[in-house]
């Protein structure tokens, strides 16, 4: 998290955040079973990366559908209500034309798991985004072992040296690092760390409220070479087109698909909106 002392922005140590503290406790428990050196060796032996960056650079505004079992704001979603397997759900999302699949693996607030991501990956050919609070190197190697192709790093939870080292580690494993930001100051820190994919999250971490100005406030300060992803607030095709009109190359959509009675149709509708002539494309095609 960040706080302001006088005119200076200060990063609050991640360990003081209760969510992060819970995440670290989980990491410690898993590391007691599979030591760091073992998970590291396993992750470095894998070679079946899927090209998440290429998926993001397609013409139009790409759609990344997020699989989640529940959320602290909206409660249980499609997976829980229908008892549908994650693999079957992922296959429906792929049929709808999504560019990538994001899977919530955070257990504390979203009842997610790495096994969910692994199941989704096995059922599809799409690149996978591991949606979690990533603050420890162990998690990066673990995510790779369970099929992640892109990993988010929440800039507001990480001191600069840790942000840089985690980003380097993600990329050393052939994955794409997405710096997740909520303010222009965090975006500046992400760029300084070398991030080339930036996700602007409109959900505030502490209050779970939507800041619909977040993307338009941050986007003008990003270099042309940076891939821009809008996270949160995409409830329908109109929201997606609005995000694209302000410079989003892709959006992450959760409830817009997850609470639909027809996941494939809901995905297809968003994908069609992203290909509309009104959605500018920075990558040609």
TrEMBL record:
EC number of the protein: 4.1.1.48
Top-level EC class as recorded in UniProt: lyase
GO molecular function: indole-3-glycerol-phosphate synthase activity; phosphoribosylanthranilate isomerase activity
Gene Ontology biological-process entries: L-tryptophan biosynthetic process
Stored Pfam families: IGPS
Pathway(s) where this gene product acts: Amino-acid biosynthesis; L-tryptophan biosynthesis; L-tryptophan from chorismate: step 4/5
Name of the protein described by the UniProt record: indole-3-glycerol-phosphate synthase
